[in-house]
Amino acid sequence: MIWLLLFALMGWLVGLLVNGLANALPRHRVIPLWEDRGFPSSLWIRGLRTGVCPRRRDLAVELGMPILWALAALRYGPSTHAVLTALDLTVLVLITVTDLEHRRIYDAVMLPAIALAILRAPVSPWLGGGALGAWLTGLVAFVFFFSMALLTRGRIGGGDATLAAFIGLITGFPHGLQALAYGIFLAGGVSLFLLLTRRVTLRTAIPYGPFLALGGAIVLLGF
Question: 20 to 30 A from 151, CA-CA: which of 2, 16, 48, 219?
Answer without folding.
Answer: 219
